[in-house]
UniProtKB/TrEMBL annotation:
Pfam family, one: AMP-binding_C_2
Ligase is among the record's keywords: yes
Keyword Ligase attributed: yes
Annotated protein name in UniProt: CoA ligase
GO molecular function: ligase activity
Protein's organism: Desulfoferula mesophila
Length: 453
């Protein structure tokens, strides 16, 4: 039998039987959270339910959202002032039992210690984190150039996954600069690289300068990319794969949940949810504005809501992530993966409203990428007032490529605006900048230029 899931026992189960397993783990996790967290006790009390009342996934979906990023920050502030730690009032373990912790990136506000684990948590989660990479060929002893902002950041937890499958991470802090990254790639000869989309693109141009060779000559067998929308955009995918001469994979594990990765499909087929026994993430969607449940059917779009199923330190119950995803319930047409798959559409807090039209930056970026190589693909959405509402026209700053002369810009802008109107029903105002003018980040390259701050 072909192995698909991190827990091989799931390969023998039908989707309905996986539901049963999730439901068997649901009540013990909910009860544990109520018994060990004042915050969760109050949430159950406010709903008028006991953990034992929540026996099915439908019962769970009927519960209101308990927490989001803003509430998590309030919990952290309260626990810091009252209990002397930043892990939040939803912490269910003794702070002395915390074995590993890491923060979110802080791109949307004060970082939170969402990635907080006991030793048992790490032992539970690490094999699933590792299986994502093994699913696409990473094997015992394979070296992985791992380039992120290391230390307390969330991405560092993937190192535990790599080590669990006996991969060898060559971890380089992205803040060290492109020369060090490329030198390490050249001397350690890794088979794979894990980093962000924007950093992988940035290294394409830097390699000839630093090493005197193209990135394709480094011999990577595959790139694991996370943290940004991009792998799902055909033009981005083609550009990176062509430069490196290998397949790229989209992966994530927000707060150590929804552990997923794309397969070896030549086209984007969604991130495959390889550990549905650890959380309910792709099984619980809500409308991002009303927070009402969205039926999880093939092609459904909604905000992902996390409920942990096997977590000690910092379990999340009915946590609205802010991630807008599209979920597919049918088997993957390429590899046959039988579970749920998802594509990140955007962030709920990134949504813009232009003349009543809801727009996500990822959709704008996808249209822009369709005009490469006349544009570099780098862009900024210029905001003069606080989102989500934008007084039209939406201002869009784009990098032109070096091959485009001034006399071409008016016609190029007209074609881009036409494509935006046809596909997204907006007519942006284009502001041109020279190639290389928009700075790339070693973490997440921002899509917004916020002039109101």
């Amino acid at each position: 039998m072909q192995r698909y899931f991190a827990n091989p026992a799931l390969d023998a189960l039908s989707p309905e039987e996986i539901y049963v397993l999730q439901e068997q783990r649901l009540v013990p996790q909910l009860t544990y959270c109520r018994d060990h967290s004042e915050f969760y006790r109050e949430k159950f009390r406010a709903c008028g339910v006991e953990p034992g009342d929540i026996k099915t996934l439908d019962d769970l979906r009927a519960l209101p959202v308990f927490m989001n990023k803003d509430q998590e920050r309030l919990n952290a502030q309260e626990s810091l002032e009252r209990d002397g730690h930043p892990f939040g009032t939803h912490l269910c373990a003794d702070p002395k039992d915390i074995y590993l912790t890491g923060t979110t990136s802080g791109t949307t506000g004060m970082p939170t210690f969402t990635y907080t684990f006991t030793k048992q948590d790490v032992e539970t989660i690490a094999p699933a984190l590792g299986w994502r990479f093994a699913y696409n060929g990473l094997a015992y002893g394979d070296r992985v150039l791992f380039i992120f902002a290391l230390g307390i950041y969330a991405t560092s937890m993937s190192l535990w996954g790599l080590r669990s499958i006996k991969g060898v991470p060559i971890d380089v802090d992205a803040r060290a600069g492109s020369e060090l990254m490329l030198r390490f790639a050249d001397i350690t000869r890794p088979k794979y690289m894990a980093t962000t989309v924007s950093l992988s693109e940035y290294l394409i141009g830097k390699a000839p300068v630093v090493l005197g060779k193209e990135v394709g000559e480094l011999g990577f067998r595959g790139l694991f990319l996370t943290g940004e929308v991009g792998v799902s955009i055909p033009e981005v995918r083609q550009r990176i794969e062509s430069a490196y001469g290998c397949r790229i994979y989209d992966y994530w594990a927000p707060a150590g949940h929804a552990i997923a990765i794309t397969c070896d499909s030549p086209s984007y087929s969604g991130m495959h949810w390889v550990a549905p026994d650890l959380c309910t993430s792709f099984d619980d969607l809500v409308d991002p504005e009303t927070k009402q449940p969205v039926p999880v059917v093939n092609g459904a779009v909604g905000e992902m809501v996390i409920t942990s199923l096997r977590r000690q330190a910092s379990p999340l119950l009915k946590y609205a992530t802010g991630d807008i995803v599209q979920v597919w319930t049918e088997p993957c047409p390429h590899c046959g993966f039988p579970g749920k798959r998802a594509q990140l559409i955007g962030r709920a807090d990134d949504m813009l409203v232009v003349k009543g039209v809801n727009i996500y930056p990822a959709a704008i970026k996808q249209v822009v990428q369709g005009f490469t190589p006349q544009v570099t693909g780098e862009m900024r959405i210029v905001l003069e007032t606080r989102p989500p509402r934008v007084v039209p026209p939406l201002k869009l700053k784009l990098e032109r490529s070096g091959q485009v002369v001034d006399t071409d810009l008016e016609g190029l802008a007209r074609r881009i605006v036409g494509a935006m109107h046809d596909q997204l029903k907006i007519r942006p105002e284009i502001q041109w900048v020279d190639s290389g003018s928009l700075e790339k980040s070693t973490r997440k390259t921002p899509l917004f230029e916020k002039n109101y701050e």
